[in-house]
Inverse folding.
């Protein structure tokens, strides 16, 4: 599986871990995110703060990666450290769809990490809207959003993928988000 590692990526993860300390109750997190099949940020949050698994949700849209994640959860007792995944909710599909489903209604998160690999697009906007519209955030919560803002992604946005840059008059993903 592809992993996005590097000095900057770990710096961001460290900053995220530090920010959670600012919550009035940083223990026993209710997590929602896109950790990928390595579960890197999920495991880091779990190890440092603890995560209430049955009140936490991860999503993966890549079928192979999602099946792997579901297998990790299913076979948790055969994996060293697997108890971290025992009751975790794993959704195969896009997070914006998961946040609309009745089976996840009532779930409220205090840490959300939308670590997207691409640039700004309509589905990302829908995920954020669904967090608020379906009341999935605790009163005190931290929402992390990361996007790829390289020239390739800006070019894709200019060509009309998701929200088009034509409406924002810029090649900045932030301005696209603000105009959507």
């Amino acid at each position: 599986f592809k992993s996005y590692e590097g000095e900057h990526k770990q710096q961001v993860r460290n900053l995220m871990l530090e920010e959670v300390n600012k919550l009035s109750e940083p223990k026993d997190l209710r997590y929602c995110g896109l950790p990928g099949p390595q579960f890197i940020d999920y495991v880091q949050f779990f190890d440092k703060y603890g995560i209430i698994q049955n009140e936490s949700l991860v999503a993966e849209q890549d079928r192979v990666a999602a099946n792997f994640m579901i297998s990790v959860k299913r076979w948790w007792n055969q994996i060293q450290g697997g108890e971290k995944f025992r009751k975790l909710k794993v959704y195969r599909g896009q997070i914006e769809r998961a946040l609309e489903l009745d089976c996840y209604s009532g779930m409220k998160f205090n840490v959300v990490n939308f670590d997207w690999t691409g640039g700004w697009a309509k589905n990302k906007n829908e995920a954020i809207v669904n967090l608020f519209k379906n009341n999935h955030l605790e009163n005190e919560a931290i929402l992390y959003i990361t996007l790829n803002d390289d020239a390739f992604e800006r070019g894709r946005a200019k060509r009309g993928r998701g929200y088009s840059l034509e409406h924002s008059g810029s090649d900045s993903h932030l301005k696209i988000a603000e105009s959507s």
Q: What stands out?
A: The two ends are 32 Å apart (CA to CA).
